[in-house]
Each structure stands twice: as C-alpha cells, then as structure tokens.
Amino acid sequence: MREALLEKLRTALSELLSEAGDSGQPPVLSLDLPRQKDHGDFASNAAMVLAKRLGQPPRTIAERLIELVGDGGGLLARCEVAGPGFVNFWLADNYWQSLLCEIVRSGKSYGSSRSGAGQKLQVEFVSANPTGPLSTGHGRQAVLGDAICRLLAFTGNEVTREYYFNNGGRQMRVLGESVKARYLESLGQAAPPTREMLEKPDTAWRDSIDGMPVVFPKDGYQGDYVGEIAAAFRSEYGDARAEEPGDGLFREKAQELIFADIRATLAGLGIHFDVYYNERSLYDEGKLDEAIADLRGLDLVYEAEGAVWLRATKFDLDRDRVLVKSSGEPTYLLPDIAYHREKFRRGFDRVVDVQGADHIEQFPFVRSAAAALGCPADRIELVMHQFVTLTSGGQQVKQSTRKATYVTVDELLEQIGADVFRFFMVERKAEGHLDFDLDLARDRNWRKNPAYYVQYAHARTHGIERKAAETKIPMPLGGDFAAARLDLPEELELVKKLSEFPDVVLRAADTREPHHITYYLREVAGLWNPYLQDGQRHRVISDDAELTAARLGLALAVRTVLANGLGLLGISAPESM
Question: What is the pLDDT of residues 138-193, one digit of tens each?
C-alpha cells in the first residue's frame, strides 16, 4: 500500500516540478504513519521540502499536489492539507480489505523482502570463553544476536553466525588450576601453590578441610560446576593424577565439558552457529605479528616502558593503547584488530559485533585500527546491549543456588522455558538496562505475561479453525474470500495494523533492533484478543456464509503475521494453550 501511494506521489511531484519549469531531480519523499489516527493513514512533508526550491508557500504546493494525485486511481478515499503544509492521505477501505487476501496467500513469506540481496554479513555474538555456564547477560546477547540474524536473513541477506572464543590465556589457566585444586581436594590432598601464588601471595587463599590446608587461586572459579568438572575428571582418569604437572589436562577437560554445556544451552534456546572461531588460530597463523608489522609500517605503533603501543591518538581517540604488554603477552586489543581484518579477508561485506556494554570502550580502538589496515570502518557495526538485572518480589536476585556465582541461563530456562526467556530478552531496546521480572516471567496467566499474551492470540486462530472444522466450514487458505464484508471500524483498524508488518520488519532489520517486533506483536494481539472477546458483535462463524469466510480469512491473516513475527524472534507459535 505504501509503495503504491509513494509511486502516485512521485508522479504528481514530477508533474508539479514540470509545471514550475524545474527540470531538476525530485526530492526524496517521506511517507510516514501519522502519530494520531485522525490524521490519516499516511502523511507526507513533500510540500514543505519543496517550498524553498519553488518559492511558494508549503500549503499552496500541498493543495496542488492533492489536485494532481486525485483519488490515486481509486487508491485514495480522500486527501487533506494539515498544519504548515503536511498532506494527509486516507486509503479507500477496499484497498485495505484486499490486503488481507494478499497476506493469506503470501503465508510464511509475508513481511520478507530482498532488500539485503547480495549482501554477505557476519554477525558475531555470545563469544563467551569456555570458563563457565552462560550468564543472563550472555543469554540476552544470544537472543539478541540470533533475532538480528533472523531479521537479516528474512530481508534477503546472506548471514553467517559466528562465535569467537579464546581457550588460552590467564583465564583458562586459572580455570585449570581451580579444577585441579578441587580434584585434589576430592582426594583429600592439597593443591601445591603455583609459581604465581609463590611470587604473589595475594593471588591465593588458604582454607582447611578436615584440618588439611587447601590452596586455591584467589580469583579462581568458585561455582559448583568446577567441582562437577573435577568429579568428571576423576571418573575418567581415576585417582592417579595427583602429581600431574601443571594444569594442562585439567584445563582441556574443563574446556571440553564447559563448551558442551554452552552448546547445549544454546541449543535449548534454538540457537546455532555456522562458525566457531578460535582466537588461538590468529597466533598460530601469524596474524598478530602481521597486524603489528603492518601497523608499524603505517607509523601507528611505537615502544615505550617495555610495551608495544598503538598510536591511537592519530585516530583522534583520547589516548594511546597497549597492544603487547612488557611481559610479551598481547592485550585483548591486538587479536581483536587482527580478527576484524580476517573477517573482511573472508569476503564479508559487513560485520556486526553484538557485545555487552563492557566492550564499548574498546570498540572505537578496534574499528579505527582495522580501518587503518584497510577495512571499511563504516561496515563495522557495534550492537551494544546493557546488563540484565533479575528481580523477584521487588528484590534483586543476586546469586545462583547451584551452578555459579551468578544466575545461569539454564536455571532460568528450567523455570520459565525458552519462549518466555527469549521474549523478555528482546522486549526492550538493547541499549537500555533490562530489569527482568522473574515473577512476571513465571506467571502462566496469558493476560499478564506478554509472551503468552501474543502466543495465545495466535493459538486462538487455530481454535477458530477447529470450531469451523466441526461445522464442516473450510478455511479460505487460498485467500479467496469477500474481504469487503469486513467493514467495522475495529476490523479495518486490525487490517491496517497487519499491513504495517513488512515496514516493521525492515525497520527492525535495518536498525538491528528486534524489540520493534515485540512491540508490534503486542499491538496486534492487543487488537485481536479484545476483538474475539466481543463474541456477539464479532461472531466469526455465523449463518452468513460470506461474512463467516471473511472473518475466517481475517483469522488466517492474523495467524500469518503473528507466526511470522514470533518466528523472527525464535519463539514458537502454538496451536493451543
């Protein structure tokens, strides 16, 4: 509908410019949904944009545009000039009604487009190192990243989902030490202090179990899962590893089990990855050395205080940053720079990094350095999300009872299920802090829980179909029904809302903001559920066969939009509840 009206408006605009002797290019038109219903179905500021160029008052131009557009070939019911020169358009009811048939015929493809055709995008998200179960913050990022991928694919992009991880470095070493300490503890033995503990006594803490001293990394991993890994290690290798040098074997076992746990959690959320990219490969393939050398050749690297620095102030950033510590160990910045260059070397047209707010400070340095190495800076995007706070009974839920020192995704999934978890995680704009109301998420009442409210609206369309089948009335699956019979104001309002779906999808995909879909689905359900509640005025199945078919068609159109929207969020569309 919007595109059809835009075409009529472009034609009228070209004619208007021709009348004024202006042979220049017509301006880019906007055709938006008015904030208030009584301002029409669409509104355009074309007259105000042209006022200075034509030297005429905007209202005069607007009135001439209305004359040239006319009824738009039967598309329009009326047009009006509003305010300083806006043109408000009301589409004819029969055009809205005919859209229902198109929605039903389009089915699963309704709302999709080819706007991103030919674009190869890489979306990196989650990227949690295998040091423990996924936290609620990781869960928000997982659902956000997956929904963005679904939106991009639905709008024609070729999408690669990527998980970047580091299974080396100090984090993993401490994890190995933690598992080894718990393993030895289970044998009734004390773990010997590591070299770091001896050199820096404040990096260890000591306790006693049955009078036996226990040495444990002070910043070691404390969750029960560490003990579970140690138990699994003991079950596989027995009790003969007490003298195992270092933490290598313990670290490998921990990584194996934790990654298996992470993958299982993601699978429970319906999330898969096309690529798992190990940061270690950047070291092994010399990509870090290559990046340093190339940056040095651009006079963007220097040495000071025994460390290697990025001359970031050349990018108008506030300070220079260390790339390689005086110990010879790279900081997180260097592999991130090399990794982003590899992304474009692998043929992606655009890369999207979905990361937590704790990464926002580093991102400008990564993007600027990658751009210096030849990557297109405007094609490196950051989708940043804020943290998640769990609340119950008005109080913040601070700790997990089993798995870690934080609430894990698995614990929440056990309580509320994947559908509710996913809905709540993308219900708010990513940049905003998310207060996750655990009591509301647990509530099974469809009138209160927003996820169930939307799902129930979908399930009710199947309930209508089952009732129709009982009376041998076929569903108009081919979209062949008299939509013109749907002439009640609330029916037309519902149809207009359904017509917005393709534009909402495009907006959500282009802005990388899936929360637009959740808002929209709640609006659709907010029209459909009350419509069905008034069974007397809106009886779907009646003695009027033509009206029955039309209202069954409406139910199918609602079902199509809700199912497609829920699918973009990775949420199931149940047939009964």
Answer: 999 999 999 999 999 999 999 999 999 998 778 888 888 888 888 887 887 765 55
Instruction: Please determine, for residue 559, whether its predicted confidence score (pLDDT) is greater than 60.
Output: yes
**Contact criterion met (CB below 8 Å) for 275 and 163:** yes
Q: Which amino acid is at 469?
A: A
488: in domain? yes
User: How many domains does one find in the chain?
Assistant: 4
Do the domain assignments include residue 323?
A: yes
The range of the structural domain enclosing residue 233 comes to: 169-268
**Helix, strand, coil fractions of the chain, as percent rounded to 5:** 50, 15, 35
Inter-CA distances, 341 with 289, 336, 344, Å: 13, 9, 6
Does 149 share its domain with 258?
Answer: no
Q: What span, in angstroms and rounded, lies between the C-alpha atoms of 41 and 34?
A: 7
| pLDDT tens track for 94-146 | 888 888 999 999 999 999 999 999 999 999 999 999 999 999 999 999 999 99
Cα 38 to Cα 460: distance, rounded to the nearest angstrom: 30
**CATH number of the domain enclosing 6:** 3.30.1360.70
* C-alpha–C-alpha distance, residues 148 and 131, integer Å: 26
- For residue 198, give the H/E element and its range: helix 195-199
